[in-house]
């Protein structure tokens, strides 16, 4: 375990985020944000530690066993952090810790206490506030908070009351996280670049007889070389495995004549990339593969072009559905007319998922998709994926040449003031570019396609 706090130049970024959250909860609200705890893989062997995205967003601290408390208008300071006290013996085995003495300066907080003082100090920190914000999905923390309320009720006759309302922290905090700052966009661009480099390396490594897990290994080497890690378990799905949306076995051998779908991204500095590409194992698309691939690509381009401020989040999906449905009708895989096929959902056996999701510190990032039941309008600073697909089951009642083909194309897109920016545009996705890349005729970084 390596104690990591924000670099001095970044400290103000985290302070600004905390101030925005304090403003969002109001002067009568108090918020508790817990760090993640270590998870054990087996016996005394922990999984690599990954901080809670919410806690890291507000502190930049990558240590377990910590707690942040935001107390608006508190005389002794609005921002209090509980951390593990330094333990020389533990540091010898696991590396340096932040400790209570250094925490105020490193994190830019007002006060720091030892984590084992929570039960003693929390009731006093909650005193005088009307609302308590905390993550409702942390059931243990909610139960502990109710215990702190009991402590405060014992002083009710002296005018000491606990907060009267429990509120889910996800509401205000996740709305803040949804709109990315310039600092966050820089990190998302970096994650996109590393993710793109990994996909290009993997495409160059595809050949008959290589195993799916070997392609995943090529990508993970690129991630690690950038001091990153997978933002989720990579999906490498050859042939009909691509028709399993969350295929993660990565245990099959790739064969000439098949396609391979690769869905993977890098997490770098707590920000995620998420790219999907589909390539022919032998470097050339067959006619049926080409037809379906071009249809998915046309749908993705139409969906991306729909992204702009004040456009509904659902607009890109509607564009993708329209293009895919029209193409499936033209290919004879479903019956028309097109509008009727859309209304009745005839495309769904082949395209059964949404076209995108929010992207940020989490690969499926936080933030509501609807407000008061309506799809929310897009705003500058939002980042989303665009990933239509077509999946034809091996036993589908369609011409045999199409059976077992699975195709998805995914990019990461930033909503800008003017429209949008494709962060992952470096990775080739047209048929000509892919075939040139896999034959060695195209370097997407240094050479134009002839």
Structure description:
The protein has 450 residues and is an alpha+beta fold. The protein folds into 2 domains: 170 residues, Creatine Amidinohydrolase, Chain A, domain 1 (3-Layer(aba) Sandwich); 260 residues, Alpha-Beta Complex (Creatine Amidinohydrolase), CATH 3.90.230.10. Helix content is 35%, strand content 17%. The chain contains 13 helices and 21 strands. It has a 6-stranded mixed beta sheet, with helices on both faces. A 3-stranded antiparallel beta sheet has the order 9-12-13. Helix 5 packs across helix 6. The longest helix is centred in the middle third of the chain and has 24 residues. The chain is elongated and about 75 Å long. The protein starts with 10 loop residues before the first helix and ends in a 12-residue tail after the last helix. 42% of the residues are buried. The mean pLDDT is 95.
The total beta strand count reads 21
Strand order of the largest sheet: 6-5-4-1-7-8
Please give the radius of gyration in angstroms. Answer: 25 Å
Task: Give the fraction of residues assigned to helices.
Answer: 25-40%
> How many DSSP H or I helices?
13
Q: What does the overall shape look like?
A: elongated
CATH topology of the largest domain: Creatine Amidinohydrolase
Instruction: Let me know the average pLDDT.
Output: 95
- Give the distance, in angstroms, between the N- and C-terminal Cα atoms: 50 Å
Residue share in β-strands: 15-25%
CATH superfamily of the largest domain: Creatinase/methionine aminopeptidase superfamily
CATH architecture of the largest domain: Alpha-Beta Complex
> Would you tell me the structural class of the helices and strands?
alpha+beta
Largest sheet: 6 strands, mixed
- Poorly predicted runs are none
């Amino acid at each position: 375990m390596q104690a990591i706090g924000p670099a001095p130049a970044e400290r103000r970024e985290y302070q600004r985020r905390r101030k925005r959250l304090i403003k969002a909860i109001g002067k009568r609200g108090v918020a508790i944000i817990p760090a993640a705890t270590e998870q054990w893989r087996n016996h005394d062997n922990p999984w690599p530690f990954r901080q809670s995205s919410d806690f890291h967003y507000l502190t930049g601290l990558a240590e377990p066993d910590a707690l942040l408390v935001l107390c608006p208008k508190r005389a002794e300071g609005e921002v209090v952090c509980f951390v593990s006290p330094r333990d020389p013996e533990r540091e010898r085995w696991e590396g340096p810790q932040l400790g209570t003495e250094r925490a105020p300066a490193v994190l830019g907080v007002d006060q720091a206490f030892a984590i084992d003082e929570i039960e003693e100090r929390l009731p006093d920190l909650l005193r005088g506030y009307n609302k308590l914000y905390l993550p409702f999905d942390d059931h243990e923390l909610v139960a502990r908070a109710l215990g702190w309320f009991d402590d405060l009720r014992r002083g009710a006759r002296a005018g000491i009351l606990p907060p009267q309302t429990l509120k889910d922290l996800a509401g205000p905090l996740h709305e803040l996280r949804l709109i990315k700052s310039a600092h966050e966009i820089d990190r998302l661009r970096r994650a996109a670049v590393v993710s793109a480099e990994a996909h290009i390396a993997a495409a160059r490594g595809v050949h008959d007889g290589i195993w799916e897990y070997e392609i995943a290994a090529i990508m993970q080497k690129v991630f690690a070389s950038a001091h990153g890690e997978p933002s989720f378990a990579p999906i490498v799905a050859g042939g009909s495995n691509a028709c399993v949306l969350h295929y993660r076995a990565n245990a099959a051998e790739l064969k000439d004549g098949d396609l391979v779908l690769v869905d993977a991204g890098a997490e770098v500095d707590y920000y995620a990339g998420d790219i999907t590409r589909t390539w022919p194992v032998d470097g050339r698309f067959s006619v049926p593969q080409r037809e379906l691939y071009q249809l998915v690509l046309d749908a993705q381009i139409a969906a991306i072009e729909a992204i702009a401020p004040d456009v509904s989040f659902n607009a890109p999906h509607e564009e993708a559905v329209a293009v895919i449905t029209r193409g499936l009708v033209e290919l004879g895989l479903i019956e028309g007319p097109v509008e009727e096929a859309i209304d009745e959902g005839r495309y769904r056996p082949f395209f059964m998922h949404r076209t995108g999701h929010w992207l940020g510190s989490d690969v499926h990032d936080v933030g509501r998709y609807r407000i008061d039941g309506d799809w929310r309008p897009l705003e500058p600073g939002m980042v989303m994926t665009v990933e239509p697909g077509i999946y034809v089951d091996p036993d589908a009642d369609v011409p045999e040449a199409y059976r077992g083909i699975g195709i998805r194309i995914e990019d990461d897109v930033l909503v800008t003031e003017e429209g949008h920016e494709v962060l992952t545009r470096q990775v080739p996705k047209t048929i000509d570019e892919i075939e040139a890349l896999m034959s060695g005729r195209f370097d997407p970084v240094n050479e134009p396609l002839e």
